[in-house]
Amino acid sequence: ASLDRVKVLVLGDSGVGKSSLVHLLCQNQVLGNPSWTVGCSVDVRVLFSYTT
């Protein structure tokens, strides 16, 4: 069986780097000077996999 779609929810204590990690994974770059995230933040990354 193959996975068509995966959703990931990142949870944890404040100030541990959740937003920085998600930004790194979605944007492929380190978040230079991150500020505190109040509430929630949403990032989306779409990956395509083609097999022949």
Question: Count of DSSP helices?
Answer: 1
Strand content: under 5%
Task: Determine the N-to-C terminus distance.
Answer: 16 Å
The sequence of SSEs as H and E is H
Low-confidence stretches: none
Structural class, judged by helices and strands?
Answer: mainly alpha
Mean pLDDT, all residues:
82
Indicate how many domains the architecture comprises.
1
The radius of gyration computed from the alpha-carbon positions, rounded to a whole number of angstroms, is 14 Å
Shape: elongated
> How many runs of DSSP E, i.e. beta strands?
0
Main sheet attributes: strand count, strand direction, barrel closure: none
The helical percent reads 10-25%
Précis, in short:
The protein is about 20% helix and about 0% strand. The protein is elongated.
Your description of this structure?
With 52 residues, the chain is mainly alpha-helical. Helix content is 19%, strand content 0%. The chain has one helix at 18-27. The longest helix has 10 residues, at 18-27.
Task: Please give the structural blueprint.
Blueprint (H helix, E strand, L loop, with lengths): L17 H10 L25
